[in-house]
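Chapter review: from sequence to fold.
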Amino acid sequence: MYQLRILLVEDDSTIAATLTAKLEALGHDVCAIDMTEGEAVVSACRFHPDLVIIDPWLGDGSGHTELERHGNAIPQLFLSSDISCVEETHPGAVVVGKTCREDELARAIRRVLSIA
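The token string follows.
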């Protein structure tokens, strides 16, 4: 897999740091880490990421919904501690757990990019 520019949208700084380390170990560039949906939209416009990894239930709303509202057609990988709930509310979405291993993360990224 080639290096991707990834926008991470996660409001838990510990999870964001752990995920960033995993993504960098996989050879990817985390171009921004945002904690709010508004920040995510600004970063998406500024950095033009190849992929957004997003917590669908941020403290201030759904970054996923906000990105769609602004017309950003960037492939999205959902990150959640409740995978079944995300699959129920976002049918067809690719979801990984917040405590996923690097190999699980790499497979999920490949899957998102193959259907994008």
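Two observations follow directly from the output. The mean pLDDT is 86. The first helix runs from residue 13 to 25.
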